[in-house]
Amino acid sequence: xxxxxxxxxxxxxxxxxxxxxxxxxxxxxxxxxxxxxxxxxxxxxxxxxxxxxxxxxxxxxxxxxxxxxxxxxxxxxxxxxxxxxxxxxxxxxxxxxxxxxxxxxxxxxxxxxxxxxxxxxxxxxxxxxxxxxxxxxxxxxxxxxxxxxxxxxxxxxxxxxxxxxxxxxxxxxxxxxxxxxxxxxxxxxxxxxxxxxxxxxxxxxxxxxxxxxxxxxxxxxxxxxxxxxxxxxxxxxxxxxxxxxxxxxxxxxxxxxxxxxxxxxxxxxxxxxxxxxxxxxxxxxxxxxxxxxxxxxxxxxxxxxxxxxxxxxxxxxxxxxxxxxxxxxxxxxxxxxxxxxxxxxxxxxxxxxxxxxxxxxxxxxxxxxxxxxxxxxxxxxxxxxxxxxxxxxxxxxxxxxxxxxxxxxxxxxxxxxxxxxxxxxxxxxxxxxxxxxxxxxxxxxxxxxxxxxxxxxxxxxxxxxxxxxxxxxxxxxxxxxxxxxxxxxxxxxxxxxxxxxxxxxxxxxxxxxxxxxxxxxxxxxxxxxxxxxxxxxxxxxxxxxxxxxxxxxxxxxxxxxxxxxxxxxxxxxxxxxxxxxxxxxxxxxxxxxxxxxxxxxxxxxxxxxxxxxxxxxxxxxxxxxxxxxxxxxxxxxxxxxxxxxxxxxxxxxxxxxxxxxxxxxxxxxxxxxxxxxxxxxxxxxxxxxxxxxxxxxx
Length: 698
What we know:
The chain has 8 helices and 35 strands. The protein is 14% helix and 60% strand.
């Protein structure tokens, strides 16, 4: 037997095997990396995708590219200084950094189904997205959106997808915005450029349960300048929810037109909080807000200057399912430094009130006052485009002044009230595309003052008015009473029943007036006018009836020494009324029964001594007992009052009391006579001045 040991078969060691595998893997990776720039573009090109890159540097844990270009169906992506880092365990992709990214793309159109599929696909892709994304410079043209430029940095925590980052830093500028996105926004508010900046807050104490808490800053540039800032908290419980806290909105624009109303130089600043979720949205002021407008032209005849609106409270709420119909609760104060309108004297106005309801069914209250002390309370309802309201004039106590006279330029210049009370109310209706309609009433109690050259007191009335389509005005007064009116001849208890007026608001002196009766007391008797209708711009004739006029009361007013009489006078005066005044044509006066007339003055005695023809007249009138006293009366436009007096009677001391018939023609300047009577009665300085002006202008 041979002592030579047997020969054993050799087997590779474990270390050698592992080394060979690593070498094989390295060869495969090297081959893959060598062929990848060739194979990958060819594979993608077969799918219609063009891919090119330059300056690639591969590593075990990353890839660097100097340039990358991708094109597909007219969309393109160009990136430079790209760095992608990964790990072989945990999150595959650690970070993606891009120095400059240029993108041209089309926003995909998605229906509800594709949107849901996209969300599911994004969730499936989430594990393969990088934990950090950094873009130093972005230029993107996205059809359907606009041009976006800026920078982006996103960082996630483990277990959170990229779209729920732990840190977000975004600075975007949006230009060339899609016009369809701006539909419904007034042209003056449409932005030409938007800058959006967000940054994850380092602490989230205000919303610890929020998925994301961001500081938000948005600037809008264009015709208007706007800035919105605040803290945006994003939540995802059973559905999405967002809150905007410590929000501030600042807006400036040179001009804005709302509902056809131009606003000049508008400024506002709002501090508020807002919420939104799948059901709806809400907004609430955190401190009073102010809006200012230099000039507001409500219509061609109405201009407000230096307008300010202060909102002490504002709450807005809306639901998406109701089409965004917004409910509103607000307390406001509005002021205008000057309101200009043909029916108002230019002065400052203020309004304080509330707003409540939905924008399609909005209720409002307003307490309005002006610089001269006029006060109005009102309630309004806006339903769709129809506006209606109730306005109440707070009682005006005229002893303290007349704010209506100071407010209304068409207030009659010769009417002044210094006593009594005025009040009223009105209903206003302004339907869409229909004329304004106004109805209401005005009440006067115990009014006193001056009307033309007459003192007046005790005026009581209730006037119902209606302003219809086209400015047609209707005024009805069931009863008007003037307690005292003194144009030189005192009138008492002047009463007008069922008075009415109708005319156009622009031509009030061309309207018509009517009544069922006019009555009053005069010189111890009464006067009356039957039912009639007159036109203010035409000649009108009617009869004034006199009954029970006391001759002694009439002669007591006549400024002649020694003239006395006693009789009861009745009569009828045909009146001519036109734009020039009131005149009498062939009036008739007569004594109801016999009476006496005494003219005992040295003046008439001297006249009798100087003129033998007047001697008998002077002696007879010294104590004349008449059976007949009648007179014709005319009052002419020249101001002359003409009497043709017939007297039949006797003087018991003259020629043994034989009958004497006298015909006397008397002529008086009635305005001068009334002025003399008034001036002798110590009337006010205002009346004295008006009397002097009247006499000078004749």
